[in-house]
Amino acid sequence: MKFIFWIVLLVVAVVFIAFSVTNRSVVTVDLWPSPYSIDMPLFGVALVALFIGFIWGGIIAWVYGGKTRERVRNMYRRAESDKRDLAILRQKVAKLEGADKKSADTVAAIAPPSKDAA
Length: 118
Description:
Elements: H1 2-22, E1 26-30, E2 37-41, H2 42-64, H3 66-110
Antiparallel strand pairs: 1-2
């Protein structure tokens, strides 16, 4: 997939470079509704339009990705909470196993040997 992306990007770059080389004439861009106008090369107008489209697309993608980013943050918080809970439970299990072993040793020391053991 990356390979296809780079091929397409190369084709677009070659087309844009060819457009820039062949369209160097100056055009007047009116900034309606303001009374200002700018004289700039035609390829500059295309480059500015491409840049504005890139920025606008990035803003739209960022806005629509907000729900996904929020979901990821919540899942990360839940995973961290689960890790803390797991560590606490492991400590409790280890403590209970130690207490169980201690009580088993105490019972073995107090209880008389059974007849089956002999």
